[in-house]
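Entry 12.
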Amino acid sequence: MRKGIIFSFVACMFLSVFSSFSKERIEPSMMKNADKLKMRQWVDSVYNQMSLDERIGQLIIIHVNGDNGAANRQKLVSLIRDQHVGGVLFSKGTPENQARLTNLAQENARVPLMMTFDGEWGLSMRLANTTRFPKNMMLGAVKNDSLIYYYGREVARQCRLAGIQVNFAPDIDVNSNPSNPVIGIRSFGEDPKRVAKLGVAYASGLEAGKVMAVAKHFPGHGDTSTDSHKVLPLIDHSRERLDDVELVPFKKYIDAGLASVMTGHLNIPALDNSGVPSSLSKPIVTDLLQNELGFGGLIFTDGLAMKGVSVEKDMSVRAILAGNDLLLGPLNAKKEYEALKAAVADGMLSDSLINVRCRKILEYKYILGLNKLKLVDVDNLSSRLNTPYAEWLCRKLNEEAITLLKNEDKIVPLKSLDKKKIAAVSLGAPHNSPFQMTLRLYGDVTCFNAMSIAELKKLQPELSQYNTILVSVHSNRVFSSDDIQSVVEGKNSVITFFTSPYSMSRFNNVIKNTDAVVLAYENTPFAQEYAAQAIFGGTNISGKLPVTVRGLYAVGDGIETEKTRLGYNLPEEVGIKSSDLDQIEAIVKEGIAQQAFPGCQVLIAKDGVVIYNQSFGSFEYNQAQAVTNEDLYDLASMSKASGTIPAIMKLYDEKKITLQSPLSKYVPQLRNTDKENLTIRQALFHETGLPSIIQYYMPAIDTDSYEGRLISYKPLDSYPALIDNGAWARTDFKYKSNLISDVPKPGFSKRISENLYISDSYQDTILYRIAESKLRPNKSYLYSCLNFMLLKEVVEQVSDSDLNTFLQNNFYRKLGAVTTTYNPLTKFDKNMIAPTEQDDFLRKQLLQGYVHDEGAAFLGGISGNAGLFSNANDLAKLYQMWLNLGSYGSEKYLSKETTRLFTTAKSPNSRRGLGFDKPDPRNNRLSPTAPQAPISVYGHTGFTGTCFWIDPDNNMIYIFLSNRVNPSRTHKKLMTLNIRPRIQSVIYNAMNK
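Predicted 3D structure (tokens):
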């Protein structure tokens, strides 16, 4: 009797004390915003038709295979019909299979099922071929909380498409134990407040998208050294410590009005000293979570198949008694269902308790829209899930997570590329990894990879010739700190880790000896791409370390950098929908089908980001070799604006020439002729009075070697070479042996084509031919290649170097424009260069790697009017430098004043600028650009089927490269189909939507 009195007294005292800490339950926003009257009506209508057995079944969420086979389908239907379950959690599968299973389940359920999902990093955690978002540890480095919210919104969108109403995320455990075997990178980090903020942001996004968020694993699984899937982990912290760390995110989550919490299977003596798993503990689930913290939402247990709880007797009954609403994934659902029924029958569970839980579950089903259930539309599900926006968001999260932890002498972003010989060494990744491929977008980077220590040692002799080493660690299982140290010793070096932050501790010594350390967190393609971009300044770096790396870095560490070069992303990055650019592909394919060109590259950059860089078609119409983004094209007259003009701008900027300087000052062949007073300015505007072209090759041909005319304007047997529409040429002529040779020899160092060399003196011959050409009395505008041949002479005389060397030293090598060059066969394999014409007239071969333009060819491949080769990506660097008013990659190339002058000046007599072409606002039909192009646009076209246009108003670059002259220049449908301006129109239309 006395014992009973004492017990009652203690119990009353406990309740009295506890009540002083109890908190009014917070109604989740989802519930608060529901139409309570309609909800109650629907719940009543369903509930009143349910038997007690059906109400009991609502408390169970079954875990079912994602296999759509007959046996699994039958099992699923049986569980739904026989155990009357409240919801389903599928294991791994595909979106389509899960959608079909979801539809099957809903069709066989009397009460709509709550379809749940365990997707901490999106659908890809369980479903193949879906967007792979970063894991939480990586997201913990992102400063921009709104991105985490939008990430939650996107996951909700995808869940809804797949028929999912509940996502068991976010994990808001505070991972304060680096040895935690089960949470680790699933956590946002070790700072409780930061974990709380990100968890709330993500959950808010989910619930804004009408998907219930479920925070886990209450009351905190972050500081364990064992896995609750295998054993019951012990958390032996004081209540004060739990309040200060583990419980902080859950308190914030509850206060934010979020809907659901998952209870973990943990042994926490400070909260319940009975040794009972926390998921079965009333002091934890009811007294702490609901009464003290005020949580009023839906409570799920963690998976009941886990060893941390599955060994417990009567676990499901005890879980309900502890205060959980839903039982997740018991190993034997039928057994647990029967146990619940038995507990009700013998009074351990009251009818009223079952009824309260059942009604609560039905209320949330109503809130989640199950009162108006629609089956999942399986058609095109994958494409609707994997939208460009989803990819952009995933890219953006990766970009903003990249963390720079060390940066001696501000080596990152890399600068002075012309002074660096860079090698990239990937450890634990195959050749041509996304990291290395992205590095090569920025400059001349030689790539190596090693999968073992032995392979790494073999590389060391080769690496000795490089002064900058970019090491990437893709696995921490093989290589040691000393292994990496042997590679970077005595070099400028950057080490990038595609691993968990905790694994960096193993590399303590080499980290202390390297110049820069980049942490990318995960070894995914996007993590690799954006780490490479960050190293070169394609993106700014803003990530902050979410955990402590023992002996090296503290939580919150992270050095910020500025964006200095072009970045690479989807159109969504600059506010354009990818789908609005889809018409570009259609236009290109039309051009290829109409034989306007066999292949092409199209690049668009806006706001400093390359948003479109695609290659189409093949080198030739036989489709034997597909075009890639790395391939080079003959730019033809784009060489004027991409080669000669930057050289002239540089000399002008250095005050070595003026626009009024006479050409004859630098080209002696013009002196004492009627061209003596022609100026650089007139040449740039094409207002010299010079003819458009001359026959550059005629002095080299032996006119005694053939009879009659060289060219006929009628098709005759003796004129087999078609050289243009309505023009044919003889092929039986011979070249003068003192000017053309079929082998290299002294005085014949310049190549016209394969096995054809021209006398070094022939350049003077062409210059004299220009000097002797007939000058028009009226110096009105007439486009002439001769003007730029003369400007090339100006550059070479003033700089005392050939045009290519001058440009390489002052622009291309510094920009990292590796493929931009004259005479590309001196640097690149022929198979990387798109062929142009089958020249049956002068060179009698398919031109591949040799300049198409005859004038440039007879000048040895380097001319002011033509001769430059490049891919689109490298050209964009030059053009972005102009958009940046003379700067790129933290280096100044030209003054702002010079850049503005050359890119804005316009002739009063034509549409032409200082070397650049421009739109014709008076006549859209004659304008080289799309009608939407503003008058500020500048650029150039090329005879081989190329163009570029720079739009300073919209901070945009458009480049089109093709080899439309293959196999013949008679292919002119590129112009008649208006391909280039039409593509440009698509771009402007997309921007203006």
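Annotation: Confidence is low (pLDDT under 50) at residues 1-20. The chain has 34 helices and 35 strands.
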